[in-house]
Amino acid sequence: MKGIAQPLLLAFCLLVLPLILFVDLLTPRGVSDWMLYFIPLLGTFWLSRPRIPILIATTCTVLLGIGCVGSPPGITLGVAALNRVVGAFVMWTIAFFIWQRKELEETRERVHHHLSHVLSASPVVLYSLRIEHGQPVPVWISENIVRLAGYSTKEPFSLTWWLARVHPDDVADLGDFSSATAPDHTVHEYRFRHANGSYLWIRNEARILRSSTGQAVEMVGSWADITERKQTQQEQDALFAIATEINRTANFEDMLDRVQQRATEILPCDRMVTYCWDGTRTAYRAISWYGVPDDLVPDTVAFEFHPGEKVVDTLLAGETILINDITDQEWVPNQMLAHFRLTAVALVPLAVHHRRLGALVALSEGGRRFSTHQVTVLEGIAQQVSLAMEAHEVHRMQQQDAAVSAALARVGREVIAALTKPALLERLCQVVTEVLECDYSSTVLWQPEEGAYHVLASYGHRSGLQELIPTLRLSEEATAGLRRRLEDVSVLQVALGEASPEADWYRQFGPTQVMFAPLRRGTELIGFQAAGFYGRAAAFTNVQESVAQGLGQLASLTLEHARTVDALRRADGVKSEFIATMSHELRTPLNITMGFNDLLLDEVFGPLTPEQRATLQRMAKSQRKLLELVNSVLDLSRLESRQLSVSAEEVDVAALISELATEPRDEKPQLRATWQTLPTVPRIHTDRGKLKVVLSNLIDNAMKFTEQGSISVRAEPYQEGVEISVIDTGIGIAPEKLPIIFDLFQQADSSTTRRYGGVGLGLYIARRFLNLLGGSITVESQVGCGSAFKVRLPPKFPPGGSPWGDTSGSESLSGSSTALTAFTWQAGGAPRRPPCPG
What we know:
Layout: H1 2-26, H2 38-43, H3 52-70, H4 77-121, E1 124-132, E2 135-141, H5 145-149, H6 159-163, E3 185-193, E4 199-210, E5 216-225, H7 227-248, H8 252-266, E6 271-278, E7 283-290, H9 297-302, E8 304-305, H10 310-316, E9 321-323, H11 334-339, E10 344-352, E11 355-364, H12 372-417, H13 421-436, E12 440-447, E13 452-459, H14 465-468, E14 473-474, H15 480-486, E15 492-495, E16 513-521, E17 524-533, H16 542-601, H17 610-640, E18 649-651, H18 653-662, E19 671-677, E20 684-686, H19 688-704, E21 709-718, E22 721-728, H20 750-756, H21 762-773, E23 776-782, E24 786-793, H22 808-814
Helix pairs in contact: 1-3, 3-4, 7-8, 7-12, 8-12, 12-13, 12-16, 13-16, 16-17, 19-21, 21-22
């Protein structure tokens, strides 16, 4: 009506103007004639356009001018003109007022239109309420409530209407905002029911205006839809809680139960099931579940996903499967979903680094469906579960590796402790039985001389069978099937309760489960280690298989080592026997030759010329050196064969030194020897012959490597025993050569062999003899200045070893030769080696 009334009113005003002009021309020109023109002007007050009053005022002014000129005579022109001027002024004043009013209304209408548009597009709803008698009365609410909450602006929006749509659990948090003590500014977050029945999370921020008495009179505020933010926050909190459960729960099964419980609360759904790959059944099987009814648990456990099925191939490709309509899907048979009473299913793959571990399955019943957002949340949960499964697998593998390493370390220690072959095999079988926690173990090796496999050792067999086992012989034909299978595997399990043609011969002994580990020499199969159970059908675990695999390799190496040691021991025995025999055979003719040479020197067969005597003396010198070498080799063979015994007796060290001083040796005109024994040197209880050999070797070496200068042999007390020093001013020994001079067949420099002779036995024998006597030897040397050897002996021969607190010399010499780098003189004026010239 409003759109039609305004054009009709404008037309009326325009039609009235000619009639007013006609009346103005016919009537006498009075003062009030121009007032007729106010009729159309006042009519423009109800018109919406502000320019219409100006147009009507202009028209009326023109008509007033026409009326002034064209009126009948009788009124003076001046009076009429003044009358019309006053009328025009009043008319334009009224027209300007109407124009300003219309401009203001148009501006307000435009602002209202823009404001309404802005408020409608705003994500928040603005409202204004008047407080009357403690109850809010709606004054105004923005129209975007239709879009955000689905309600019309014609709703009553009373307090009762509003509270009826707030979630019951959140009503108590709102408080009484109309009381005098209520805060002027409040912010609440609560759930509000949408027109479609779902709940929104809204953030209501309100400000209360009060009267001078403090009474709430008006409330203005806004509320915004924060559902998405709340959902995101809740999901993040839930994912954080799930991550916390994963990190703080050590037990993997308990962790899965808690994660599944939280996941059903977040999504929400009715059940959660975790499927994982089962290599023994080559299928994905349920390993954990939550919310599954008791009557469906057996079917849930029995259900499997097999490779080749579309659902499995899709999950292996890393894709999520969402089934919201069980009647229109091709993933899972409809009858199966109906049997489990399901209406929606979401399957998310569990994967880490392209490894497909299984699937996390959310199940709903009662018509609920999964949204895209819920599937995204489920994928986030599945990612955390995947990482937890990977960490659990790594931890399990570390524990398994630690268990395998510990078991193999124990086997290694036990086997090495019993390295002789018979004890080795018996101990190996016992340790294998204990480590694998089985009933028995046997070692079966190929015996070429018999052409059959022989059970060389066993442990844990049943009574009566243990005695029969050693007599068992297995032909190549009986073990052909087993040997073929062992060629390509590191361990083999056989369930003898089932058909097992490769080990039918083993069935007669009564085991129900047996595991074979091949024993190899290189690539050759030389036997196998068997371990098994009596009466148990369960197979060995993966850890036990890994241990058995390592046992087979360790046993193979140990058996080969034992065989090598036996061969070396036999070869060493042959060598020692050969050296001893050759030494005896060489010494007999050498002694005869030396006897005849002495007779010739004594001129028993006639007088000698000076040249003949000189030749015989050179021969005697060479014969003595050869005899010393033969005696040293003989001593070496006795040492290596452990046939050298100690003949302890009371020894007068002073007499021994005097005896060594009178023995014939190579004379060097420029070499001076001094022999000194302190009066306080005690007698000691030791092997005189071995001590004499030690000192002779040291003195001979000193004289050999000293062309000029001096050699000093000195005996003095040391604690309760004796210390004997042999000091020379010879060529000396380089520091880097000190570690090897006491080793067998070693000298400080190979060039000295050609110049000074010797094969490197003297110091080696000296060290070994001193070890037998419980003594020690140390050395200090400097190239070009000479060497100082010091021998220390206890007062009494100790059968158990060296009694000295400082046993580094004897212990190191009996061990690694590298320890000899520390054999230097200690402080206290102990060596008396002449100072180096310059």
